[in-house]
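Project outcomes to date are best conveyed with an example. Our students and postdoctoral researchers have been running inverse folding experiments weekly, and each run begins with a structure described purely in tokens. The record below, which covers 302 residues, was selected by the lab manager from last quarter's runs and is presented without edits.
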């Protein structure tokens, strides 16, 4: 078990004591390591894999899960097939856990589900790109990849969530700050037979719910859902925020949804890229995003 304390809270020990109590009540035998920083998650997951652990539970959020699946994907398939990954939500953003109905405030239910060890193979999205050193790189994601304004919002949201606590309030405050930022980016996208060559506000590519932007995506159908958002007028922008909070984001007139196995980004000038809620180094030049089907064993509810 890898405990990733939530940044910016003072009762980290109290949170772990609650989880520890529930684990003992269910008779769970476990070893626990705690991450010191976000950068230490990958190192600790590699250590657990190397020591032969067959069930790895991340007590953390989307970014910690992202680190874990990228570690697993470095292993040979035969090794990966023997390991199951689980989550007790404890992050700034827990979108992937929420998709499966894991509730951060209901540890008893979550542990009760995990001990039954019901496994489902899930898909991973993957961005394949070139970095500033002209090296070919790739990075996997469980939930979504964002290009443009939403990547900026996700970055601000992580910071404001620490201040406000509320998911909705942090998103609204982040959006308000973004009103003073760049709102459009010149992009050229190829999705199936469609070519989009124009200014775009944001793109969300989801294997999962994508923080409400790809609400119909599921991480087990071998497909990626894509939402391309053109720049709406201010009234439409407010309407779009309301639809996002209400779970009807795709109903907005500026949102253009697609379903595909691959998207090619030939151009995305000065647009930030976020992966599972965390900013990544912006790819240099064109890149593509595709899907790998049923590659991770994930512990799901009964």
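After processing, the design step wrote out the following sequence:
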């Amino acid at each position: 078990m890898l405990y990733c304390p939530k940044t910016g809270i003072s009762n980290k020990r109290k949170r772990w004591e609650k989880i520890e109590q529930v684990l003992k009540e269910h008779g769970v035998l476990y070893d626990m390591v705690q991450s010191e920083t976000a950068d230490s998650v990958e190192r600790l997951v590699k250590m657990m894999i190397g020591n032969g652990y067959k069930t790895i539970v991340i007590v953390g959020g989307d970014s910690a899960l992202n680190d874990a699946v990228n570690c697993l994907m470095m292993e040979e398939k035969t090794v990966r097939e023997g390991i199951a990954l689980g989550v007790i939500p404890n992050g700034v953003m827990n979108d992937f856990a929420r998709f499966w109905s894991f509730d951060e405030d209901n540890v008893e239910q979550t542990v009760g589900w995990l001990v039954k060890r019901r496994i489902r193979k899930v898909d991973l999205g993957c961005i394949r790109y070139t970095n500033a050193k002209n090296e070919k790189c790739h990075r996997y994601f469980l939930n979504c990849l964002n290009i443009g304004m939403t990547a900026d919002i996700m970055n601000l949201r992580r910071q404001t969530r620490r201040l406000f606590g509320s998911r909705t309030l942090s998103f609204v405050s982040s959006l308000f700050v973004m009103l003073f930022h760049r709102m459009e980016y010149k992009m050229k996208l190829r999705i199936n037979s469609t070519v989009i060559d124009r200014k775009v506000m944001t793109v969300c590519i989801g294997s999962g719910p994508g923080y409400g932007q790809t609400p119909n995506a599921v991480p087990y159908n071998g497909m990626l859902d894509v939402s391309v958002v053109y720049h709406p007028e201010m009234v439409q922008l407010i309407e779009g925020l309301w639809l996002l909070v209400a779970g009807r984001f795709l109903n907005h007139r500026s949102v253009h949804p697609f379903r595909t196995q691959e998207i090619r980004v030939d151009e995305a000038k000065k647009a930030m890229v976020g992966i599972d809620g965390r900013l990544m180094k912006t790819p240099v030049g064109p890149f593509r995003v595709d899907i790998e089907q049923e590659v991770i064993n994930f512990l799901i509810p009964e």
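The chain is about 30% helix and 30% strand. The CA atoms of residues 138 and 256 lie 26 Å apart. The training component of this project remains on track.
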